Amino acid sequence: MFALLPDPRPVKPVLLLPALALAGALASCQTILHFNDEDAQLIVNRHAVGVSAGDFFQRYGKPASRVEAMDGTLTFLWEGGMVEMAAGVRGQEDKICRLQITTDKKGLIATAPIVRDAKGERRLSRCAELFDTGA
Predict the structure, then answer these.
(1) Which domains are seen in the chain, by residue range?
(2) Per-residue pLDDT tens for 43-98?
(3) What is the pTM of this model?
(4) DSSP string spanning 19-32?
(5) CA 135 from chain center: how many Å?
(6) Which end of the chain is more exposed for a tag (fewer CB within 10 A), N or C?
C-alpha cells in the first residue's frame, strides 16, 4: 500500500495568486447563475407528487410511455418543454424536461424524478422553468 506524502517543494506565490483569483471568479459566476434558482427536483415534486396522474397529464401533456407493474403501480415516461427549433447545432433534445413518474395503486403520483433536464431559456433548469409558475 502506498502512502501519499506531501510534496516537499514549496508552492510559488506567483502561481498561487492567479489560481486563487480564477477560482474566486468561477465561484462568483456559479453563484450568479444559481441566484434565486430553487432546486428543480423540489419544484417538480411540489407540482407532481400527490397529484392524480390523470390531472397531471391533462395539465402538462400526455406521457410518452406507460408500463404497468405486477403490484398495480404504473410508471410513465413524460417529456415536456420541447420547442420546435430550426435544424442546426441545437436540436429539440436541448430544450426538454423528462420525468419518470411512478404512481401508487390509487393513481396518485408517488415519485417523479427528473431523468433529463436541459438548460432553460430563463433558468438553468428547463424542468424548473416548466413547473415554477413564478419563473
Answers:
(1) 37-131 (3.30.1450)
(2) 999 999 999 999 999 999 999 999 999 999 999 999 998 765 555 555 555 678 99
(3) 0.65
(4) HHHHHHHHHHHHHH
(5) 15
(6) N
